[in-house]
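Predict structure. Input: LamG domain-containing protein, 305 residues.
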Amino acid sequence: MKNITKTIGAILLCGTAACVALTGCQEKANDYRPDKPVPKIEGYNSAAEVAAPNLVSYWPFNSTVTDSVGNLTGTATKTTFDAGVKGQGFKGDAAGFIIYGSPGATIPAMKNFTLSFWVNAQKPGKDDPARGIFSLNNNKDFWGNLDVYLDGYRSLDTMNIKVHINNDAVNWKGQFTNALIANPWGKWTHITATYNDTTSVFNVYANGEAVAVSSAGNSTVIGPKLHGDDPAKGDVPYGPLKFVNASAMVMGSWQFQTTPPQTTSASAQTWAQGFAGGLDNFRIYGKSLSAKEVKALYLLEKAGR
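Output follows.
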């Protein structure tokens, strides 16, 4: 009888413990129920919230080359779509490009800017051509108003990303900046370039972190102040941008490397080619994003939000 009583007691005790355990599991499950809000990142729920009023153009590259914000439409040559950071992304070719026959009214009028995108590039050979990523054209000059490209003339262990800016309002019109990013090859890297017309400060970020930039008249530093003239003549800021002769944009190449060229001042160059790699979530803002905004954008897009 005692053994039967002990057995019944043990069963009841185990049942109680199982019930407590199940209740505890249910409480933990409730902590992660689908209807609970996802924690914010740097104060934002999604990448779409970051500087939303200032977002001018956005290319998610999900089976289309159309700008989903500014509705700019392009014509693609020898480009396709492949797996991106989220969904599909742009897949370029050395002889490929997308031409946007009109850049709209907002982009050519920008006084400052932010360019933000993901890039997936393969390591170049020592003497490989420079690879064009983006150009806002200047149809009467060799260089565009705004050019982004990968140069191959540095260490093969680093990505040498260059941004050329034209400001027709100053003597030092064309500014060539470059930043080196370590070990980026064969994987997605988030790149952001910002220019502030009030401070004349230019920044490049890789995966949300500011990197050192080389520019004319400056040592290689994070956030150099661009000069509008020779520093020996005094402190002349680069100031508000003035783009000129902007009639088209190119994605995945250079303004002179397309067919036909988007400038009357140059044709295809042997040292240059299109970008045979991946691009995704390409954004243009009509303001210089803050470091916090850049970090948030990177983290949110990395999280697929």
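The first strand starts at residue 55 and ends at 59.
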